[in-house]
Amino acid sequence: MKHLTLAAAGLALSAGLALAEPREVRIASHVSEFSPLHAQSVLFAEAVEARLPGQFEFKLFPSGQLGKEKDLMTNIQAGSLEMINVASGVMKLDRKLGVFDLPWLFADRDHVRRAMAAGLEDAIRARIEEVGNMKVIGVYENGFRHVINAERAITEPFDLEGLKIRISGGKFRQQVFQNMGATPQKVSWGETFTAMQTGVVDGAEAATYGFYEQKHFEVAGYLSLTGHVYTPSFLLASNAFFDSLTPKQQAVFVEVGREITDAAYDSAAALEAKYFEEMKALIEINEVDLAAFKAATAESYADYEESQGEEYLAIIRGAQ
Questions:
Q1: Mind listing the UniProt keywords for this protein, alphabetically (predicted)?
Q2: Most buried by CB count within 10 Å: which residue of 15, 127, 143, 145?
Q3: What's the chain's average pLDDT?
Q4: With b meaning 16 or more CB within 10 Å and e meaning fewer, what string describes 80-118?
């Protein structure tokens, strides 16, 4: 009996040790360690560890190690991946989320933060969870997007006439560039450098860190600060993973996801400033005539409002 009791105690101890093992949580992204998204994932992991020490082992997989953005979205919906941090792919879940593809939606980063705090973030979170079968942990920043090309400086809309531009995003962003005379091109991001080098495309639109990490300045001489689109980033968890957490763990994930928001924006701004500083000696960087661009693309707002309503736009305009 004594042996059985000892054996049972040993099994209980082993079970206790097993339960104490930290749970592995993968956070995957399609973009690299140069991105604000990677910095956000680090912030989140460190903050959760501080609140729930030893309960989780976060493993970060940037640079598409676990798949491209579309694949990551599919895996999070299927519950085969714990967490992801992505950007433009989320807008393809639903045309209403395409509001972020509208040009010059925000005046600057402060306008973004005011709008998010005024209710836009909560509305976006609810929409993603409704149509996407996933849990939104945080809404942060992927950045303002600009245009890089090998042909000429872009200062006014007509400067884009005839240029083949690699574009991501949905219908509304494609339409914006078409309205300005450019020819949108679908090229894998990892192949964009070669596509510019060989003339398959003349340029690309992306966030600053994308041009920096891919060294596009080696094959394109002009970076025009159009700031035409602001893209949020989205830290997402699969419903299967989130539902498997204890109530306390769920609360901490949600709280931390919101608590790191200011630090996430500050980090994104600092990274952008750093990359601009390093690139300005390597490529010609120019400002643009924003009024001319806004006038040339105004009709895209009417198209969006007619099909998707004014709910999100009213919040954004109210925060301006």
A1: Periplasm, Signal, Transport
A2: 143
A3: 92
A4: ebbbbbbbbbbbbbebbbbbbbbbbbbeebeebbbbbee
In a domain, 18, yes or no: no
pLDDT in tens, 131-156: 999 999 999 999 999 999 999 999 99
For residue 95, the domain's CATH number is 3.40.190.170
Closest listed residue to residue 230, CA positions, set 205, 264, 204: 205
Helix ranges (DSSP H) in 66-152: 69-78, 109-115, 121-132
Two tokens at 46?
Answer: 């460190």
In the chain, which ranges are E strands? 23-28, 56-61, 83-86, 135-139, 143-149, 164-166, 183-185, 203-207, 222-231, 234-237, 284-286
Backbone dihedral angles phi then psi of residue 178, each to the nearest 5 degrees: -65, -40
Which residues, including other chains, have CB under 8 Å from residue 36's CB and lie 6 or more apart?
Answer: 140, 141, 142, 143, 209, 233, 264, 267, 268, 271
Q: Quote the number of domains for the chain.
A: 1
> Could you tell me if residue 6 is inside a domain?
no
> From CA 112, how far away is CA 120, in angstroms rounded?
9
Kindly report, residue by residue over 64-83, the tens digit of the pLDDT: 999 999 999 999 999 999 99
Domain that holds residue 182: 23-264+275-318
Q: What are phi and psi of 85, to 5 degrees?
A: -130, 110
Residue 62 covered by a domain: yes
Distance, in Å, from the CA atom of 286 to the CA atom of 75, rounded to the nearest integer, reads: 40
Looking up tokens 């159009």 gives 226
Cβ distance 229 to 145 under 8 Å? Answer: yes
- Predicted TM-score (pTM) of this structure: 0.89
How does DSSP classify residue 218? G
178 to 128, 162, 165, 175: CA distances (angstroms): 28, 10, 10, 5
